[in-house]
Design brief:
By secondary structure, the chain is α+β, with helices and mostly antiparallel strands. The protein contains four helices and three strands, in the order αααββαβ. A three-stranded mixed sheet has the order 1-2-3, covered by helices on one side. Strand 2, helix 4 and strand 3 form a beta-alpha-beta unit. Helix 2 packs antiparallel against helix 4. The longest helix is centred in the first third of the chain and has 26 residues.
Length: 131
């Protein structure tokens, strides 16, 4: 009977030992992960962040959803532009994050203004990463 499960048991032991070694090596890594660096765009205490979205209304959430959908389904925007941060709070939309070009920045702003209203969009955090 043991012979029947011998291979499975051996594989399980090997995987378990490898997992333990992997955990120990990750725990001993003293270098911080790249994602732990301070995000300069979010450094100001007064900056609106996606967490602030929870303070908004259902209308704010709907505005964010509609803008995100239009950005995500656009064939002309880069991955960066499709993933900009959109925070709608009290009827105001804040856009943050990297975009590839000035034209792409303008395209993101036009989409947001079309859906939220021209006076509702705050573009204080869109950064062009290619000139």
């Amino acid at each position: 009977m043991f012979k029947k499960y011998k291979d499975r048991f051996f594989k399980l032991v090997v995987i378990s030992v490898a997992s333990v070694f992997s955990l120990f090596s990750a725990a001993n890594n003293t270098e911080p992960a790249d994602s732990t660096a301070v995000n300069v765009r979010e450094a100001k205490a007064s900056a609106v962040t996606p967490i602030d979205q929870a303070k908004g209304t259902d209308k704010d959430v709907e505005i964010t959803r509609r803008i995100r959908y239009q950005l995500a389904t656009s064939d002309t925007l880069s991955t960066n532009a499709k993933n900009v941060k959109i925070v709608s709070l009290n009827g105001k939309v804040t856009l943050k994050g990297p975009v590839e070009t000035a034209q792409e920045k303008e395209n993101v702003v036009v989409i947001a203004k079309k859906l939220a209203g021209p006076s509702s969009v705050i573009v204080d955090g869109l950064q062009i990463i290619k000139k």
